[in-house]
Amino acid sequence: MTTELSQDTLAGELERARQDYAALAARGLSLDLTRGKPAPEQLDLSDDLLGLPRDLRSAADGTDVRNYGNLKGLPELREIFAEVLQVPAEQLLALGNSSLELMHDCLVHALLGVLPGAESRWVDQERVAFLCPVPGYDRHFALCERFGIEMIPVPMTSDGPDMDVVERLVAEDPAVKGIWCVPKYSNPTGVSYSDETVSRLAAMTTAAPDFRIFWDNAYAAHHLTDEQVEIADLLAACEAAGNPDRTFVFGSSSKITFAGAGVAFFGSSPANLTWLLANNAKRSIGPDKVNQLRHVLFLRDAAGVREHMARQRALLQPKFEAVQRILEAELGGTGLARWTEPKGGYFVTLEVPDGCAKEVVRRAAEAGIVLTPAGATHPHGDDPRDATIRIAPSYPGQDDLEQAMHGLTTCVRLVGYEQKQAAA
Amino acid sequence: MTTELSQDTLAGELERARQDYAALAARGLSLDLTRGKPAPEQLDLSDDLLGLPRDLRSAADGTDVRNYGNLKGLPELREIFAEVLQVPAEQLLALGNSSLELMHDCLVHALLGVLPGAESRWVDQERVAFLCPVPGYDRHFALCERFGIEMIPVPMTSDGPDMDVVERLVAEDPAVKGIWCVPKYSNPTGVSYSDETVSRLAAMTTAAPDFRIFWDNAYAAHHLTDEQVEIADLLAACEAAGNPDRTFVFGSSSKITFAGAGVAFFGSSPANLTWLLANNAKRSIGPDKVNQLRHVLFLRDAAGVREHMARQRALLQPKFEAVQRILEAELGGTGLARWTEPKGGYFVTLEVPDGCAKEVVRRAAEAGIVLTPAGATHPHGDDPRDATIRIAPSYPGQDDLEQAMHGLTTCVRLVGYEQKQAAA
């Protein structure tokens, strides 16, 4: 990422960046690139949900969806998402409105109960640690932090987490109980796990008998290009490798239909399912089946999900293309930045020179452009190189996004050239 | 409850009971009095919800209900239930579809985090115990059992739990961290707490600094007679007594609108609210606000809830009256039973001679009438006197209910007279 500039050229570039930044600051913008929220236009695509299920009260099997019961969720909705999430319908549960809640609850139940294969409750063990591929998703890390689970960073490669590191850590340390994975169009890099990564995750030897892969397949159907990436089926691979209980699959319709009022899913082995259902049975008298029926009527089948996601893509693709275009036009060849070109998902990762990310985010905020805090992509908010910035292009309108991206690249140039100048 | 019968009279009554039971068994009934589920006709009252919120996407403050966010729930819905649940709207949260989930989660957060006023996490304490007024709600007891929380039974009186016992236990034992209360139309006795009970709960001295009253106000608006029982405001009483953080108030619309797709509420002091919101923020990106908006549009205001509950009462009252009528006609004056006459809620408690409840339930099941297992009203399913049977009249149709009640009273006569005969 480093290219040599003559002292004159550097001075000129820095001066231009300063002028651009002054002009940017003078515009008094108020733009937000922080979170992976769908834009209102994306939500509009699902507005038919607002009038459903109209006068229908019963699921296909005659269940009155308005009453208590059915801890597994509606079979017909589980059928639709079985294909999307690569989990057999009988091993998939349709639950509440948030997959993050399900991940939280799986941690809680593992801490306060005994997981299949575990020797004791996690809360009774001296140390519990999770592997955290970095950069990763801040809300995963926040759950570990909240429960005192130690986080061990693992570098991401273009094939997923560095499996040499993962295999070594899980083999030697029985306190390593889990790993966070966003296997397709990963948050925030956009990386999809290679088949080899998936098969190594399934087959690796773990010192902990109760090791779990938290497989957060949040972007399973969220393509941005004609190349619809498919990942290998981890659940099947684990079973084939003799580790059937290794995986918890999570997914949701939050970024398919309504972000606040979708349906979340949990898929796993029969033993893990029995375990979660037994815990859920103490906690709940069943999920909101009316909302599940609503989703069945609206999405119809897996093909319906794919058609719907094509409409989502039509709204998102121009935004992601603008991000690439502006990064290339303004930072290409400067040696100040690298960035990912995701084929799906919700994020672009921008890598700036070491020690610059926090300052870029600070300068952007001063100019009215709010970014995800630098460091959020790492455990405890601490990016040791201070180099990673997560860009979330989905929520702003196209014009706002383009303005924000121009502003962001200005800040990168300003901070990057200032650093070079200081070092010169 | 004991009346003397001559040996001849007893033999005659027993013979009559045996004949009635044989006739009952021959009918091959299949009836279910187990759970407090609303009947389909009750759910029909809320069917307008099925087509809402139609084309409305925004809450009163402009929030897009379809997107992420708003951990407190919609202000306009919190306003409606503030009156119903006796909690100021700013201290009331509107959350998911189940208040049981909220109780579970409060236990989890107290076990794995530090409650306001607590010295440590409950999981780090040697013993944690809850007072359990009996008879009580089996799902409360199941939560304690699941988390290894010791349960200490406290007898119910017609004014609520025996406060002399409660005050003594909480004063002398710092491991006593909580008490389960269903303060209005209690499950299963129908008892409503007197003002004196409420003020003693609020003012009592507890050895535990982090003692909490789990105030499950499940039947706040669920009247069955013209006398609409009001209970004292515990939250205000606790604040007045200098114990502002003592109470967690729970409620839901499950038995107001849809049992599976309602909205649950949590009310408490500002410190407890901050604590729960901080925990929820790690777990969730907000509740289903579309469903909350749906409820606002359907219920409109607290008066709307009252009108709606009058329609619920019109459906439930004939069922509860039939239960009383049949119990009185068949068991009145026999000395074999006592029962409660609830003015609201979902249950009637039937007390049979000591040692008879399990056998009554068994005989009823053999005749095709399923009752809540005897003992379910007590911690660990163990009613030491084996005398308490919970009757849930809401779900069956009127004819089925009346048949089931006739059958039940037959079983009580059979088992009761058999016991007398054996003792004679």
Structure overview:
- 2 copies of one chain form a homodimer.
- With 424 residues, chain A is of the alpha/beta class.
- Chain A has 2 domains: 7-33 and 307-423, Aspartate Aminotransferase, domain 1 (Alpha-Beta Complex); 60-299, Type I PLP-dependent aspartate aminotransferase-like (Major domain) (Aspartate Aminotransferase, domain 2, 3-Layer(aba) Sandwich), CATH 3.40.640.10.
- The first copy, chain A, is built from 13 helices and 13 strands.
- Chain A has helices at 7-26, 40-44, 75-85, 99-112, 138-146, 163-172, 195-203, 234-240, 270-283, 289-299, 302-331, 357-366, 398-423, and strands at 31-32, 92-94, 129-134, 150-157, 160-161, 176-181, 212-216, 247-252, 264-267, 338-339, 348-351, 369-370, 388-391.
- In chain A, the strands form 3 sheets. Chain A has an 8-stranded mixed beta sheet, sandwiched between helices. In chain A, strands 10-11-13 form a 3-stranded antiparallel beta sheet, covered by helices on one side.
- In chain A, helix 8 links the parallel strand 7 and strand 8.
- In chain A, helix 7 (195-203) crosses helix 8 (234-240) and helix 11 packs across helix 13 (398-423).
- The first copy, chain A, starts with 6 loop residues before the first helix and ends with a helix.
- The mean pLDDT of chain A is 97.
- At the A-B interface, helix 4, helix 5, helix 9 and helix 10 of A face helix 4, helix 5, helix 9 and helix 10 of B.
